[in-house]
Amino acid sequence: MMINRHLRDRLKADLHAMPVVALLGPRQVGKTTLALDISAALEKPSHYLDLEMPSDRAKMSDPESYFKRYENTLIIIDEVQRFPDLFEILRGTVDYRKRNGERSAQFLLLGSASRMLLQQTSETLAGRIRYLELSPLNLSDIKNTENESIDIDKLWFRGGFPDSYTAMDDRESWQWRFDFVTTYLERDLPMMGVNIAPNQLKRLWTMLAHYNGTTLNLSELGRNLELSHNTIKSYIDTLSDFYMLRIIPSWSGNLKKRLIKAPKIYFRDTGILHQLLNITSMDVLLSHPAVGGSWESFVIENICTIIDARWQINHYRSATQVEIDLIVQTPQNEMWAIEIKRSSAPKISRGFYEACEDIKAVRKFVVVPESEGYMLKGGAEVIGLMNLLDLLNKENG
User: Fold this and answer.
1) Does domain 8-133 have CATH number 3.40.50.300?
2) Residue of 290, 322, 308 lying closest to 397 (CA atoms)
3) Residue 171: alpha-carbon gap to chain centroid
4) Residue 80: φ, ψ to 5°
5) Global pTM?
6) How far is Cα 251 from Cα 323, in angstroms, rounded to an integer?
7) Sequential DSSP letters for 16-40
8) Residue 282 in contact with residue 171, Cβ under 8 Å?
9) How do residues 182-221 score in pLDDT, each as one tens digit?
10) In the chain, domain spans
């Protein structure tokens, strides 16, 4: 099944606007498929290189000369983080092509390392490059692809890696995710320069699955794993840099209240979360203690993949346990408070409304799996997840 990614139109527009576009995201998320699909739709030839292939890496022994053979061609370079010295050469090539009238769609770079890691080696491309992030499938991708009703539970349980989501059954999806975790730890991360023993990182990754949706306590994790505070932080940063975890910072507005400053930690793909927790079926998930945190992860990741860099996201929690699951600050600097519930009849605490007053929220949402939408006493709006994503898409322009 060819999935129509919601990022497709934006990627095409950015290629028309910029000489270099970097499409980043975890391995096996569909970057290559999307890049080749886009290249076929452009009105210029394209050429593809995969830097994991020894034959293609050999072509980079003299990249400047190689690129000159493909003038007026979109060059797609996969796994670009494997060749960090390439960025300086790209600058000269981009400027040379620009002087010859080729202003856009020169290079499409695909990478499995975070923008922050790549930017350490790509400062020379400032003003010439735009970054996009491709996450695992979200509900907007599925809505774009399937005309029939959307099975939210299937995406939530299996996660959004295309091979897991489209597997012929849940057992095959489970096996794919098991293989992915093993390969990621034993081959992919070491190949991308991560120098951490796979068994040690697997222990942390599994323990973090039990902490999903909670405020991050590095000291407690360190005691449980018998590792230092700094080591734990380094490992978590690694999993975040390679798109396995999302760290939501605490809100830090100017209040007299004492706020919890620790960030919250979420798995970016609930399918991987369920694999690490040994949740083997939807029935097991619905009765598992982690079900609330898993649903929260799923909703937050869907929200974060819809909005762009103009939006800010935080969580809010005071020392008296008054909290908001997610604060979304719009490009117009409006504060939206979002509470996440997996219930058809959600009950909202007085603390949520108190926190909304603290941050001066102009909109208050209670997100549930599906709902036609209605108002609660106190001004909070119950809204189905798909309807919220449609609203965010509209606001995002």
Assistant:
1) yes
2) 308
3) 25
4) -65, -20
5) 0.93
6) 10
7) HH-SEEEEE--TTSSHHHHHHHHHH
8) no
9) 999 988 888 777 888 888 889 999 999 999 999 988 988 8
10) 8-133, 139-396
